[in-house]
Amino acid sequence: MWPQLVISGIAIGSLYGLVALGFQMTFAVSKTMNFSQGASVMLGAVLCYVLNITWGWPLIVAVGLAAIACVGFGLLVERLAVRPFAKAGSNAWLLTTIAVGIVVENLAMLTFGKEVRAYPSVLAEVPLRIWGIGIYPLELVIPVAGLAIALLVRLIFTRSLLGKALQAVSEDHETAQLMGIAVESMIAFSYGASTLLAGLAGMLIAPITNVAATMGTLLGLKAFATAIIGGLDNPWGVMVAGILYGLVEAIAVGLLGGSYREIVGFAVVIVALALKPGGIFGRQQVNKV
Amino acid sequence: MMAKQIRRRDVLRGTAGFGAAMLLSKLAGCAPAETDSATADPTPQANSAANGEPIKIGLVAALTGSSALSGEAITRGLTVAIDEVNRNGGVLGGRPLELVSRDDESTPAKGVAAARELIEQEQVAVVFGGLDSPVSLAMLPVIHELQTPYMGVWAAATGITRNDFDPNYAFRVSANDNIVDRFLMKHIKETYSDISKVGLLLINNPWGESNQIGFEEWAPEYDLNIVGIEKFNDAETDISPQLSRLKDAGAEALLLVANAAPAAQAIKSLARLNWDVPVVSHWGVSGGRFPELAGQAAADKVVFVQTYSFYGEQGKKGKQVLADLKETFNLSGPSEILAPVGTANAYDALHLTALALETAASTEGPKLREAFLNLPTYEGLIKTYEQPFTPDNHDALNENDYVLVQWKENEIVPVES
User: Fold this and answer.
1) Which of A162, A239, B78, B204 is the most exposed place for a label (fewest CB within 10 A)?
2) How many CB atoms lie within 10 A of CB A212?
3) Is B282 in contact with B305 (CB distance < 8 Å)?
4) Residue B375 DSSP one-character state
5) Is B323 an 8 Å CB contact of chain A?
6) How big is the CA angle at A219 (ends A215 and A225), to the nearest 5 degrees?
7) Nearest Cα to Cα of residue B124 among B115, B113, B132
8) Per DSSP, what are the bridge partners of residue B408?
9) With 0-12 CB in 10 A as exposed, 13-18 as middle and 19+ as buried, what is B312?
């Protein structure tokens, strides 16, 4: 039973990690977060389903269009729900991004419906058997894709000119602006990229979680917890924390039963934060005077 | 970076933005309800033989949302039965019946408000209930306060009819969890005589709980040993940890209680474990998309309970109802009946209600309640009802009236024994 639990925990955990990367990304650049991240996950999956399954367009076109729509959504969120408030030094973006998420979820219920639908995929039909463990091929793809994306994010941040600019913005907006960096564009970029990640995560997980207007809510919450545990300044840490969180949940179910999944999971979040407030893999936030 | 001072204007702007967004989302959530409750009267008055003052029959059910099909199925059963009653001269000397529907959106609070509105404003004689047990349970206090009979045609929670109200105004022509649990365990014992250990796989909500109590009550009667009780949540994607525990505990058959989407995840997880075990289920899996969500082959193996099947040899009543359904709703055959349970239960329940109105010779709640307990024999669709309700039993159907069914290519068909 235990090998099965470990594998299933890793697969689910990497879903959390993938969505959490989006939280990490905007926070690293602008110290703000998009709490409609769960809605972005749903948006990616629902749009892809409608284009690909309902309208019968080729998968590659559907994924491309859904991805573009997710980027557009991120830019809109930043422009309308974050920038006006962050600029004024207000924390109201906390509420406005949550509100945007609720609006989008309800719009999806209205147009797409509340019904849960299956997303057929050859990667999630017949489980592979490895040493007696059953696992869908897609569940092997998700952790690999998640780690690859985390690596890519890390590389972009540390090695590219764009990354240097993003980092400069995250260090100090005013100085970055003086150095000729378009601060507002950089922040907008980080939002577009974060909702893109969430949207891709949604499309990737849809064959396993099924597609529904409410599919992103709990996932978004767990991803946020994961991002906090992982440390908001470290994409690797976020991804690893996601996998650990998935493992903790699976082990909790294995030891205590299904009713304890969320209880143990979120209790561990509290303990982890009490012991390491900056996240397990994060640097301690130091307020310089 | 220096934090700028937060100005009052910004705070106000932020609050206003949030408020507006919440308002929008609320509006979005409400919109379908309004359009749906507007189409409340599907009874064609023109071709009814009865032409006195109509007697209103209320329905509070999920007409939108993920359970919308259930509301539609109930509406169909009621409509066909009402048409039939009206064609034959109505009740109480020529008064036609008229259906007034309200959408509860599967939300208890909405159901309670709707029940009160139907009784106080529309003055319905009886309130019919929908699929959601929590909604029906929540409606009980209003029903009893306003002394108007409730007729359940789907929701199966034991406590709906076996409640603490005296006198009890809740009646039901549907399954009752406790009786279903007995029926399912009896099936396991009779079909697999060598099985003695069963595992319970229950949705983590009051419905799962209600059935856990029932299974625990009936297990000794059928020499079954419950070796494990596992719960799972609606959005869980991998139930293999719970299944592993049941497998390790030695379960030889599984009793499943969950709606279609989570039940499908449980069935998919069985494939992960490569565990070929008999699954006997409550009727949650009858929900429309179960085969799509679980995979056709796996879905077909699950055996579950219904109160009626329109497949196979039909009696006289079955043929007639099927013909009426086809004509009224343009159906090609039994495969297009959305949810046979809701339609069949609603059909019989409406006729029993019409008989109660005649027996009471009144539309007053207390007199109707008395009449339900003294009904004449009625030859219905599901069975012939001989004194269906007694002071001790407000459930017209019992384990002898249930049928065991399974999915077969998107159709629900009786299990061949």
Assistant:
1) A162
2) 25
3) yes
4) P
5) no
6) 165
7) B115
8) B411
9) exposed
Per-residue pLDDT of chain A (289 residues; tens, 9 = 90+): 677 788 878 888 888 888 898 888 888 888 888 899 999 999 999 999 999 999 999 999 999 999 999 999 999 999 999 989 888 888 888 899 999 999 999 899 888 877 788 898 888 888 888 777 788 888 888 888 888 888 888 888 888 888 888 888 888 888 888 888 888 888 999 999 999 989 998 998 899 888 988 898 888 989 998 888 888 877 888 888 999 999 998 888 888 877 888 888 889 888 888 888 777 776 655 555 5
Of B22, B235, B265, the CB nearest to A99: B22
Taking the C-alpha atoms of residue A239 and residue A235, their distance in angstroms, rounded to an integer, is 6
Tokens of B207: 């419905």
Mutate to test the interface with A, among B18, B257, B276, B293 (most CBs of A within 10 A): B18
B178-306 folds as Rossmann fold (3.40.50)
CA distance A255 to B242: 10
Residue type, B305: V
A76 touches B: beta carbon within 8 Å:
no
| Cβ pair B233:A109 closer than 8 A | no
Q: Are B237 and B265 in contact (CB under 8 A)?
A: yes
Burial class (CB within 10 angstroms; exposed 0-12, middle 13-18, buried 19+) of B76: buried
DSSP string across B201-216: EEESSHHHHHHHHHHH
Cβ separation B3–A89 shorter than 8 A: yes
Determine whether B11 is exposed, middle or buried from the number of CB atoms within 10 Å of its CB (0-12, 13-18, 19+): middle
Tokens of B186: 């009896």
| Distance in angstroms (rounded) separating the CA atoms of residues B255 and B236 | 18
Q: DSSP label at B88?
A: T
Would you call the peptide bond into B291 cis, given omega within 30 degrees of 0 as the criterion?
Answer: no
**The amino acid at A24:** Q
Contacts of A227 (CB under 8 A, 6+ apart): A20, A21, A23, A24, A27, A238, A241
ipTM: 0.79
Domain covering B55-175+314-398 assigned CATH 3.40.50.2300 in the classification: yes
- Do B178-306 and B55-175+314-398 have the same topology in CATH? yes
The number of residues making up chain A comes to: 289
What domains are there in chain A, each with its CATH number?
A: 2-115+128-275 (1.10.3470)
